[in-house]
Amino acid sequence: MEESALKQAWQTVTVDLGDRSYPIYIGDDGLSDAAKLRQMLQPCIRGQQVAVMTNDTVASLYGDQLSTALQGYSVDVFVMQDGEQYKSLETYTAAMDFLMAKRHNRTTCLIALGGGVVGDLTGFVAATFQRGVDFVQIPTTLLAQVDSSVGGKTAVNHPAGKNMIGAFYQPQCVVVDSTTLQSLPAREYAAGLAEVVKYGVIADAELFAWLEDNQAALNARDAAALAHVIKRSCEIKAQVVAADERESGIRAILNFGHTFGHAIENLAGYGTWLHGEAVAVGMVMAGRFSECLQLLPQGQTERLKQLLRGLQLPVALQDGVDSSAMLQAMGMDKKAMDGKLRFIVTDGFGTARVIDDYDRQALQAVLAEFC
């Protein structure tokens, strides 16, 4: 297939990082078309060895399609268990043992085939195996396609906090096949929409309004609607990452709702809440916090809640969450600096910023309201 034909069939968003720039290919038939998938992957594979890292659920759905595209390479497949609780040092060690047992070397290429857990863990393994090997992201969940597969954040969880052990390490390319979203359970699909809503809040008021007007199409997994939100989400994230790869400044806005959300995941036990579900509630809490600080006009958080509800996402905590426990869990968040919590707030949908100087009573009021 000629390069011009590839560009016509697929949309491409570039993450501009100089000599480490890479493409995000966005289409709807990449895994079923072995020749097309091979063309996208071939420039990313330097040697003959490939290690596909996936979970048991995704392997049964798409493993054979990827294997067909990789014919001629020496391919080994590492299958991990499915779930956030397996994004751990134990699984990381098992993956390292696997690569060493299969005698992979520095020219190997790791391919993450799965959702955010698989992608995050594979990226961290790639960053640290023999001091760094190439890897590719093939995200199969909406959350991974619009967020976690792009930008080079790789990590595993620690019992004390989410994503506390990891590295910034960029993939060679990202292949987004939206057809995989048709096989997602409803809860997993909705969780991905939370991150799409986040992009509207922090960077694109028009996107937020579009989401309000197109809830039915998104809930029906309409292909055109998905193509629009995936591309726009990747564009926003690519722009932010290009401006601040290692989160020393503006990139922190991508964590809107996450300081609260990560604490929710941690307190409930990893895997109880899906990441996007916790972020949805966290965004509502961040919106209320912005209102309490008199930054966001009153009533806008209710607008956010209505959208999240319409997209089948939770907007409140379950009973039994203690406000002091929430505060302690938030203190373990990676965004805390020198013992001070930092929050991402919004002055109005389409804008966001980081603050570490805020009214503690306002924070306590929000925690009391939700806990």
Largest sheet: 4 strands, parallel
What is the CATH domain class of the largest domain? Mainly Alpha
Structural class given helices, strands, pairing? alpha/beta
Classify the helix fraction into a percent range.
40-55%
Number of DSSP strands? 11
Distance between the termini: 56 Å
Strand line-up in the sheet with most strands: 4-3-5-6
Number of domains: 2
Could you say what the CATH topology of the largest domain is called?
Answer: Dehydroquinate synthase-like, alpha domain
Task: Tell me what you see in this structure.
- The protein contains 15 helices and eleven strands.
- The protein is α/β, with parallel strands linked by helices.
- It folds into two domains: 181 residues, 3-Layer(aba) Sandwich (Rossmann fold), CATH 3.40.50; 185 residues, Dehydroquinate synthase-like - alpha domain (Dehydroquinate synthase-like, alpha domain, Up-down Bundle), CATH 1.20.1090.10.
- Strands 4-3-5-6 form a four-stranded parallel beta sheet, with helices on both faces. It has a three-stranded mixed beta sheet with strand order 1-2-9.
- A hairpin with a 2-residue loop joins strand 7 and strand 8.
- The longest helix has 21 residues.
- The radius of gyration is 20 Å and the shape is globular.
- The N terminus is likely disordered.
